[in-house]
Amino acid sequence: MPDTSTSTEASPTTSETIECLLNRVSVRKYSDQPVTEETIEAVLKAAFRAPTSSNIQSYTAIVVRDPETKQKLSVTVNNQRHVALCPVFIAFCADLRRIEYAMNLHQHNLDNNNLEVGLVSSVDAALVGMSAYLAAESVGLRGLMIGAVRNDPEKVGEILGLPKRVYCVFGMCLGWPAEFPPQKPRMDTSMTIHYEKYDEKATVAAMGDYDKALAEHYTSRGVATTPDSWTHDIDNKFAARQRDKLREQLGRMGFDFS
């Protein structure tokens, strides 16, 4: 007979994973406790179970421990010292090499690849990177993402020995934390969660509140800011075109984003 009993148990609204994400902060200072190869391998093996479009698995992770290599990378990413000083730096790369090898076996190549190919491989790398970040935090490691590897992708590729059709989408510092900085406020969900249709009015209506919340956060830390903190900073950052040569650089690396 079918089970017709009605459960009175409430739907779950929290879990270890949810709490891990809710408490996440970017950590830039690390203890001297060693991060073992076994730990990194376990983190990455778990991350490689992330979703991948059509099972193409178009990503590669490069684990960097060598101080000289980390120092070179730190210069390339605007002299971010935590890149040089973190125990482990992982470069998450979009990688089309294996795809092209498979196509070569069938008398094809990727010479005419387009936006979709580069976008899918970049998304693949991002899904793996975030999964690795969450897996690392679940065992007590902490770190932060480094998007500035795209400041000069060709130089980063040279440092990491990347062949054509591989580029670093972002990097990640990892280590056992020596500090836990205050958590930066996020936008109210009325701005970022919409139901059934996009609600632009809700986004605009809450923007002033987020400016104020972020300004209070920075002021409490002694960081110079303005009353319209977020909108002011965003305007400063994007009024001029960012990484204007990126498409050209990635094109030379074998990715056609036109």
Description:
The protein is α+β, with helices and mostly antiparallel strands and 258 residues long. The chain folds into 2 domains: 20-181, NADH Oxidase; 189-235, no CATH class. It has helices spanning 16-22, 37-47, 67-76, 81-85, 97-105, 115-138, 153-160, 189-192, 200-220, 229-238, 246-252, and strands at 59-64, 88-95, 142-146, 166-175. The protein has a 4-stranded antiparallel beta sheet with strand order 1-2-4-3, with helices on both faces. Helix 2 (37-47) packs across helix 6 and helix 3 (67-76) packs antiparallel against helix 7 (153-160). The protein starts with 15 loop residues before the first helix and ends in a 6-residue tail after the last helix.
Examine the coordinates and then state which fold CATH places here, giving the name of the CATH topology of the largest domain.
NADH Oxidase
- Choose one word for the global shape: globular
Helix content: 40-55%
Please tell me the total number of domains. 2
Distance between the termini: 60 Å
DSSP E strands, number: 4
Largest sheet: 4 strands, antiparallel
Number of helices: 11
H/E topology pattern: HHEHHEHHEHEHHHH
Task: Tell me the fraction of residues in β-strands, as a range.
Answer: 5-15%
**Kindly state the mean pLDDT as a whole number?**
95
Strand order of the largest sheet: 1-2-4-3
